[in-house]
Amino acid sequence: MKAKEIEQIDAAIERIENGQYGICIECGDWISPARLEALPYALRCKECQERLEKLGMA
Ligand SMILES: [Zn+2]
User: Fold this and answer.
1) 1: CA distance to ligand 1 center in Å?
2) Cα 51 to middle of ligand 1, angstroms
3) Separation of CA 55 and ligand 1 centre (Å)
4) What is the pLDDT along the chain (58 residues), one digit of tens a residue?
5) Region 3-55: CATH code
6) What is the reported pTM?
7) How far apart are the C-alpha atoms of 43 and 49, rounded to whole Å?
8) In sequence order, which residues have a C-beta less than 8 Å from that of residue 23 and are 6 or more positions away?
9) 49: CA distance to ligand 1 center in Å?
């Protein structure tokens, strides 16, 4: 497992504890359940993730 993934999982656990799990950190919208199922530690919704990837920031 890559260090970046471990970091993301840690962040996801923290967000579960804060009650923020499943909410996009960029736009505050709910991340779709299908996306969370595929990527349980996703911090951003699909739209924000794609936007950042295009900018080379993720
Ligand atoms: Zn978003």
Assistant:
1) 25
2) 9
3) 15
4) 789 889 888 988 999 999 999 999 999 999 999 999 999 989 999 999 999 999 997 6
5) 1.20.120.910
6) 0.76
7) 9
8) 15, 29, 30, 31
9) 7
